[in-house]
Amino acid sequence: DQQVKQNSPSLSVQEGRISILNCDYTNSMFDYFLWYKKYPAEGPTFLISISSIKDKNEDGRFTVFLNKSAKHLSLHIVPSQPGDSAVYFCAASQGASGTYKYIFGTGTRLKVLA
Amino acid sequence: KAGVTQTPRYLIKTRGQQVTLSCSPISGHRSVSWYQQTPGQGLQFLFEYFSETQRNKGNFPGRFSGRQFSNSRSEMNVSTLELGDSALYLCASTRTGSSGNTIYFGEGSWLTVV
Question: Which residues fall within 8 angstroms of residue B7, CB to CB, at 6 or more apart?
Answer without folding.
Answer: B21, B22, B109
